[in-house]
Amino acid sequence: MTDRALAVVRAGALTTVQDLGRPGHAHLGVPRSGALDGPAADLVNRLVGNPPGAAVLETTLNGCAVRPRSTVTIAVAGAHCRVTMDGRPVPWGAPVRVPAGALLDVGPAVSGVRAYVGLSGGIAVEPVLGSRSTDLLSGLGPALLTDGTVLPLGRPTGVHARVDVAPQPAPPAELVLRVTLGPRDDWFTPEAVRAFLSRAYRVSAAGNRIGLRTEGPALERARHGELPSEGMVLGAVQVPPDGRPVVFLADHPTTGGYPVIAVVRAADLPAAAQAVPGTPVRFVAVRRR
Q1: Which residues face 172 on adjacent strands?
Q2: Which of 13, 58, 124, 142 could form an S-S bond across to 154 if both were Cys, CB 3.0 to 4.6 Å?
Q3: Do the beta carbons of residue 3 and residue 99 sit within 8 Å?
Q4: Are 276 and 171 in contact (CB under 8 A)?
Q5: Closest to 137 in 3D by CA, of 223, 34, 235, 55
Q6: What's the pLDDT at 269?
Q7: What pTM did the predictor assign?
């Protein structure tokens, strides 16, 4: 077996392999997937000398622990967390040389939700439809990591960055999501649309890679019939029967039958990936139909 591999010692609550995803296959019913916090995934790849889009690990809340079988350069970014190597603290947000057999532990998130672990050479699992991303909805890509999983690593192609700590945005104290109303805002009463754009919501603990769920005022429909299934896009704000908006993230379904009141600008979605449960959410209209 090749020594360019990584053993997972502690998989954590939800750790997946992610890259840029597989956009362009919605007509086949395949979500785009990919890293929820794209800028953080891009950063760890730059720090370890990988090209853009190399596959990384995405952890959720309580991190993971890994043991490389050969010396690799590793960087951790995204959610702020304590990082140790064989029990000794090492920098977060900077490249770290990890010898073969050493244990790198990515601790629980101190702030934020998802940490990203980049490794020199990238994770070299077989791509599916052009991507190495794990998709929770369709099941495509590598399986969720479990204790004992061994992942192949690619050969390094670049030189790691020379930085002490790379600057990164803090997780949002308030998640402000800019939206374009529609296409189904007319399925809601004018009062409901005003409430959507003026009332405070909070991030629900029930969210996942498929969607960010919210807690707050229920939105009343003006129309109560059935909506035929129609295409869904990244950032669509769908309103299920309980009236609480759901913001679709990378593993979202490609079709849906609940009305979409608005669509969030893609630039605001990385912050949604780091918003902890209870974070206030505010929807702001930036363009009306």
Answers
A1: none
A2: 124
A3: no
A4: yes
A5: 34
A6: 97
A7: 0.95
* Residues near 51 by beta carbon (within 8 Å), at least 6 away in sequence: 45, 157, 158
For residue 47, give the H/E element and its range.
helix 38-48
C-alpha–C-alpha distance, residues 174 and 167, integer Å = 20
DSSP 131: B
Spatial contact of 133 and 18, defined as CB atoms under 8 Å apart: yes
CA 204 to chain centre: 16
Mean pLDDT calculated for residue range 242-249: 98
SS3 79: strand
For β-strands 96-98 and 72-85, DSSP reports them as antiparallel
Is residue 39 classed as helix, strand or coil in its secondary structure? helix
- Predicted pLDDT of residue 1: 47
**How many residues does the structure list for the chain?**
289
